[in-house]
Amino acid sequence: MLFVVCSKFLLLLKNPKILQKHNLNTTRAVIYIKNMVSNSCIKLVKQELERTGFIEVLRVELGEAHIQYDSQIINNEVLNNILKQNNFELIPDANSKLIEQIKIAIINLIFYGNNGTSIVRNSDYLSEKLGHSYPHLSKLFSEKTGMTLEKYIILIKIEKIKELIIYDQLTLSEIAYTLGYSSVQYLSNQFKEVTGLTVSDYKSHGKRGRTPLNRIAE
After folding, report:
1. What is the pLDDT of residues 146-165, one digit of tens each?
2. Are 2 and 75 spatial neighbours (Cβ–Cβ below 8 Å)?
3. Residues 96, 63: contact at Cβ < 8 Å?
4. What is the pLDDT of residues 55-74, one digit of tens each?
């Protein structure tokens, strides 16, 4: 059955006239997507889903897309194949979805929220955001990723530090303040502990060695 659906999907993609005549059914769904970590990911997912001609994208956010589609043509296998072409994939179960939501919440806060300290100083942030107690989230994260949630937060903050160093618009003191470090020394010590380089070494080595956010705690 899947082969028939996929074959029909590919046949219609190769025939634009058929595609234009096809009427979109009104099946709606929210799909949860792994490896979406930036605004460019949002644009790419929207573009790839819409390119099929069988999916109307109602809204896309980090980690999820609200879509309307023709269920006679599109199913989870087809969606996953579309996403995998760009290194995304559907999230298969509730726990995996929650892990991805934890990651996205942290990335959103540290990279886009201009407030890297809230998640560290106030565990209520995640529990309020995701509707689960922090101990539950922390335990699940460790079990599923093999990394503590606290360690993941630190690694995301280090990547943000690297980004800000590359931008070269803030002093190290300003970076420390922005990300909630109590001192430049504390930031520098943690940076060296994680990367093996001092901040000065990182600058002098051509500012290389950044890790894609979706590769952290895979």
Report:
1. 999 999 999 999 999 999 99
2. yes
3. no
4. 999 999 999 999 999 888 88
Given a contact cutoff of 8 angstroms between Cβ atoms, the answer to whether 2 and 76 are in contact is no
**Strand-pair category, 64-69 with 55-61:** antiparallel
| Residues contacting 158, CB < 8 A, separation 6+ | 190, 191, 194, 195
Contact indicator for 211, 159 with CB cutoff of 8 Å: yes
- 98 to 9, 34, 93, 167: CA distances (angstroms): 31, 11, 9, 32
Three-state SS for the chain is: CHHHHHHHHHHHHCCHHHHHHCCCCCEEEEEEEECCCCHHHHHHHHHHHHHCCCEEEEEEECCEEEEEECCCCCCHHHHHHHHHCCCCEECCCHHHHHHHHHHHHHHHHHHHCCCCCHHHHCCHHHHHHHCCCHHHHHHHHHHHHCCCHHHHHHHHHHHHHHHHHHHCCCCHHHHHHHCCCCCHHHHHHHHHHHHCCCHHHHHHCCCCCCCCHHHCCC
Taking each helix axis as running N to C, give the angle between helix 76-84 and helix 2-13, from 0 to 180 degrees, rounded to the nearest 10: 50
Tokens of 117: 């300290």
More reliable by pLDDT, 197 or 122: 197
